[in-house]
Amino acid sequence: MLVRDQIAQLVNQAVRKAQKHDDLPSFEPPAPDISRPKEAAHGDYTTAVAMQSARLARMAPIKIAQAIVKRLPPAEFLGSVEVMPPGFINFRLSEAWLAQQVIAVETAAGQFANLDLGHGQHYQVEFISANPTGPLHMGSARNAVLGDTYANLLAAAGYNVQREYYLNDAGTQMRVFAETLYRRYRQALGQDAPLESQHYQGLYMTELAKEIVSEHAERFLHVPEEEAIEALSKIGLEKVLVSIRHSVELLHIHFNCWFSEQSLYTDGTFEKVMSALRAAGLTEFRDGAVWLRTSTLGSDRDEVLIRSDGRPGYYASDVAYHYNKFVLRGFDRVLDVWAVDHQNQARRMPHLMKAMGLDAARLTIMLYDLVRLYRDGQEVKLSKRSGDIVTIDEVVDEVGADAVRYALLTRSNQSVMDFDLNLVRQQSDENPVYYVQYAHARMASILRTATERGFSPEKWAEGDLTLLAHPGELTLLRKILELPEVIEKGVLQLAPHHLAFYASDLASTFHAFYRDCRVVSAEPSEAGLSNARLRLVAATKSVFARVLGLMGMTAPESM
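Structure (tokenized):
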């Protein structure tokens, strides 16, 4: 249980005890909100529950706070508790207890800060899912990093996580892709086959067509056009998928499932859903099309399921796919990671869930804003359709996967992301990626140097933790103990970027500790303190590697 939640329990017990002893009148107290004070001088935690109870108790907040503190049960982790006007209760952690938390880090063996929010529930995270009509560009990289990092957070919070890529291999865009490829294929063989405005203009389509020509020669010129387009669509899809799989592997991402949209129609799922919706009276034939009557479920409009020409509508796949997720595969919770231009679709998803008889709260949609890529101060446009494209592979090759992942986590998903290629290449403290990873490398260097000077890991593993009393040491321990709350916040607020903020703060705190506390001393009389500090450094290194791992980054031993 988080320290914060333990304090909340103590406060609740104190209120009940104070009421039992007539220090407080009988009333139902609000749940105490335990938070971190804005100023460190005010302690480690604070609560305003006394002020929130003033009207209920008909007492001055400071009197309520004093009554609560008077009846507060003792706890090993609490050092001091004080009341501050107009009624705040401030809590300070015991310094002796803080020092012993190094043991908690060591015992966790790389899993420090794990929580049990999920209780083993099956949580699917579906992310990237870009149309397989070309290589992944940097806009998709943000989706990739947000989705994968959030999946890591969920796993750390006690969920059974499945990562999924949804292949939009059916519908209009695949048709446009196939038509474009057919025309580029003909062009590669010397025929006049100009593209139209709706086609994909990118050079990658020309290269893809040339590759197919090298493998199949003029084969598809000697069959009917529709047959050729269908065949090229399948070949092109397979080749694009190879490219996409390579890109996600470069970002250290591994999917449990690659799910085909087309399978929803070939395996009967769509027809099964349609039958259920018809039986429930939720479909209507109107204007030559089949509509889902979501207006009867709270939406401001109905949605087309089957167009008048017989093709599935825009929401048809969404209905069938989420039926597959929740009903056929039985996921308890699902997260879809979508670009902000899908916000209207996101608003309508709860109504589609209701139409299938599903609790809309089981589906969460994380929307993320655009990525603006800069090189040499100039913005680089990203569009597969127009042909302006910078692929994930290119950027990873230029700056590395760690730099890409960290940089894309330094902003809330709701903010536009400016990605400066020049900055993330710099080997200086101005580059946040370098600054964070250098902290881990410095810890590794300290431990190596200590070993060279005769301080063995076996000795510092038994270092006397009671010697850790310097403000720099205690501040570092306090920062380490924030990680469980960071994980919880990241999960509950759909905010994986908090990991990047925390990593930067932990790095700064460690650098300050290293500045103020000499870790390895040549003085024999200080050998005990050196071993204790080395033990702290080793624990911090473990926690830092944990944070970097949650962000999908490597933890370098040297830089």
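The CA atoms of residues 115 and 474 lie 23 Å apart. DSSP finds 21 helices and 15 strands in the chain.
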